[in-house]
Structures are given as C-alpha cells and as structure tokens.
Amino acid sequence: MFSNDDLSSLRWDPVANTVEIIDQTLLPHTLRWVHLDSLEAYCHAIVHMQVRGAPLIGVTAAFGLAHAVARDPSDQSLRSACDALLATRPTAVNLRWALEQVCAEIQPLLPWARAEAALNKALDLRSGDIHSCSLIGDNGLALLQDLYAGRTLNVMTHCNAGWLATIQWGTALAPIYKAHAAGMPVHVWVSETRPRNQGVNLSAWELQQAGVQCTVVADNSCGQLMRSGQVDCVIVGSDRTAANGDVCNKVGTYLKALAARDNEIPFYVALPESTIDWRCPDGDAIPIEQRDAAEVLSVAGVDAAGQALEVNVAAVGTRALNPAFDVTPAGLVSALVTEHGVFAASAAALETLRLQLDR
Ligand SMILES: CSC[C@H]1O[C@H](OP(=O)(O)O)[C@H](O)[C@@H]1O
C-alpha cells in the first residue's frame, strides 16, 4: 500500500511545475485530479475544502507559497502570499507551521535564490509528512496489538484522518492500515461526521479502496455502539493540539471522548509533531472555524443516475450554526500517538517531547 503517488492526496508535476491535488469535494463519486496553477487556486482549494486535513493543508500551502515566490520573490510578495494562505482556514496549526518553515528557509536568501529553495522546502515537507505518518502508523499499531485478543478488532474513528488528510498513510487511519497489512483482522466504525460528511464520503471510500472492513454509522449512534461493547478503541486525528494536551479536532470529537470515558474505552489521538502548537497554552486559545450555515442546512450527493446534486434539508429561512471543530480536554485523551512515540496528553509529557526535539 502507498507504494506510488496514486495513493497520495497531492503530487508534484515537474513538467507543469505545479501540484496536482485530488478534489475531495467530488469524492466518493468522482476521483478528479486538479492542477493548482495560481495562488488564488491554492487558496480556493483550501477554503472550499478541495484539500482538507491539517497536514495536507500545510503542505498544500507550502507549495502555494513556493508558486507565489517563483512569480515574484520580493519581500512584499512573500508577505502578501503568506497572508492570503494563512487567511484560508484558522484552526489547523499546520498551515502556520508550514508557511513558517518555508519562510525561515527563504527569507535569508537573496530574491533570485528563493524560488528553488521554496520549492525544495515544500517537497521536503511533503516527503517528511509521508515519513511521519508512517511512523505514527507503526506507533499506533503497537497500541492495537496490545488490544488485540484474537478476534476482529473494532476501531471507531471520526471525520477523515486518513491519507486524504495527509499525503500518504494518514494519522488516525495509519495504524489501521498498518494492522491490516500485518494481517490483523480489523473493522472500522466510520462515523459519518456531519455536516461535511468526511467520514461517509472520504474515510469509508479510503478504507474500501484498501480492503479494510468498515461500517458507516450515524454520528449519534456512536455512544450506543460503545455502551454495547462493540468498540475496542477510538482513534481520531487533530487539527491543533495545545501544549497542555488539549485536542482540537472535527466537531463531534468531544462527544465521542465523553462516551469513550464513560465506557472505559481507550481514546487515542494520532497526530504529527507539526500539529502540536507549542505556543498555545490550552484548548481555549484555539480558534474554532465557523463555517457557512448552508453546510448544515443542505447535503450534497448524487441521484440514482449518478448526477451530482445538493438538496436542502431544512425549511427556507431556517437558521443554523456551523462550528467546524471542538476541543477535547486532555483529561479525556488516553494517549497522543506521534511519529516520535506515544505520549500522555499532558503538559508534562509534551514538555518532555518539546525538550527532546529542542523546539
Ligand atoms: C489528519 S488531520 C485530519 C483532521 O482534519 C479534519 O478537518 P477538516 O476536514 O475540516 O480539514 C478533521 O478535523 C480531521 O480529524
């Protein structure tokens, strides 16, 4: 699995000198690769969730900055491109992290040297993400093996934290792919994840492509599945984890963490170091993206003839609120699964990691 770029969510086209991304708003019904050939196209792709998922947002933005610098390497161009990309979505810290990584690399350089250095940095971040997510898979696999008792292991996940949210492997789904590859019988409860349906649209598609058994369930049925003993553990991703271990992830994560705690089920968060915000003291300091209410009031899909359509599910004039994320307090998280190992969701454990990494 993941032996080629066809199982990557973003690939570099050296001929066209642009990246190609999968337009995730069309999945699972249509798999379409799209060239991003302007800074506006990169920003549009992130704002409208053609690409989504914290690590993928960061890597995409890095290539977007490299694209802008290749056209105008001036300090002003660098600043305005960073501002435009940073303004696309507020919650996933990988966006800021990736832009800072590229800027740190090229700001000291003379303008004529910046374009190549920016592209090389973006390519490094892309390959680094693949490596980090593979290691997250290895570290998470050890936790699944500890839980495995000779029968199918039932893992619940929320939203999509698979390879579509990163470059390859994913974060929350990486241990599942590793377990499947190792021959462990594993089944995934895929929570649909209203309102953007990343679970039913993306995770279910990914897992089926990989031959991993999965069942889509309504978000609201997950508590009963846990209470009736049908869930061995929950694994989710993160968009920003604070220095005290609080986890900001797709809205609905907090409710699953509460149900898991009530049923004494391990609740794991899988994330790369790039998703830890060392400057953020706790979850209350994390900006929660408020998306268009229309996403709650309508559903997109295809009709019986396979034609794309969007239907309104509420009466005209109905009001809706659409927070895209929530914060799960560190005390509800059993462990943080990173590329550097498994850590307690606590300020002390993360401080140990920070010192280990010299951040
Ligand atoms: C591996 S990060 C995945 C993370 O990103 C998703 O948010 P969105 O689809 O809005 O970008 C969700 O929170 C996932 O857990």
Mean pLDDT: 97
List cofactors, ions and other ligands. the ligand CSC[C@H]1O[C@H](OP(=O)(O)O)[C@H](O)[C@@H]1O
The appropriate CATH architecture of the largest domain is 3-Layer(aba) Sandwich
Characterize the largest beta sheet: strand count, sense, and whether it forms a barrel: 7 strands, mixed
Question: Span from first to last CA?
Answer: 33 Å
The H-and-E topology, N to C, reads as EEEHHHHHEHEHEHEEEHEEHEEEEEH
* Overall SS class: alpha/beta
Low-confidence regions: none
Report the helical percentage. 25-40%
| Radius of gyration based on Cα positions | 20 Å
> What is the CATH homology-level superfamily of the largest domain?
Translation initiation factor eif-2b, domain 2
Spatial order of strands in the largest sheet: 6-5-4-7-10-15-16
* Total number of strands: 16
Strand content: 15-25%
CATH topology of the largest domain: Rossmann fold
CATH class of the largest domain: Alpha Beta
Shape: globular
Q: Number of DSSP helices?
A: 11
Total count of domains: 2
